[in-house]
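Aim 2 progress. For Multiple sugar transport system permease protein, the working sequence is reproduced below.
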Amino acid sequence: MTRPTSLEQTSPPGTVPAGRAATTAESLHRPRISRTAVTMILLAAPCVVLLLLINAYPLVVAASQSVRDGTLIVTGDFVGLGNYADVLTSPRFWSAARFTLIFTIGGVFGSWLVGLGLALLLRTKIPGRTAFKVLLMLPWVVPIVVSSTAWNWLVGTPTSPIPTLVAQLGLGEVHFLADPTLAAVTVCVFKVWVSFPFMMLMTSAALAAVDTTVYEAAGIDGASRRQQFVHITLPLISRTTYISWILMTIFCVNDFPTIYLLTGGGPVDATSSLVVLAYRTVFQDLQTGPGVAIAFLMTLVLVIVSTALYRQIRKVDIA
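Predicted structure tokens for this construct:
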């Protein structure tokens, strides 16, 4: 006969030894993947792999082009970070970066202010509110080609309607798209025009989720309309506001047609943003490496800005 071990000797009859109990507890708490989850993973795997390949392959090719001195046809020699150094020391790059910053700030906050004001207006009882809301959506719904053509007709030449009106008011002859400063202002205003419906929709959805009893309680406590707006409305819609800022920042930085169709980046590169400069560098100057390097630098800036705004979303406490 075999002698019982010390563990078995110290364990009362009918009980599980301590070592086996610990192992059993671990096995009970250990997460198990069900057959349904495995099946779903296997079914989704081909789509996930395909999406990764579709997105990863262009990214890898672009990264390879950014460190070479080739063209759209010829791969070129490896130059390392030379393209990035050339871009960062180019006056054209910093001029485009400055305009991109102005264009983005004007587009984001200009469209947000207009959209917020119209969203608050649409919450009031005004006649024809539904039709008014549909009309306000037109700048966003109409294709950008049509909108840019209409704005070119309005301000493109000295005989256009708006320059003619300005001249009749005694303000002299104004060239909105020929003067560098006026062209930059015109492009920013045009961006606000085509973007405010998006901000209006985002803000309207956020305002619709606000409990109206909060305003009633604040009114009873003697809070004015301005105090209610600053201390109630803005904090309660802050999450949506930050999200809309992130999206609009991405839209503005990557916006090529709004600028190119209206001014082509001119006059004298006054309205040339980074995305326009990247397009010109690759497809007009046939310098693929520097052009792709500009695009990667844009992406890096967008990631930093989006991350900063996303952290603000996580810090928001509306309780």
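The longest helix spans residues 35-66. This observation will guide construct design in the next reporting period.
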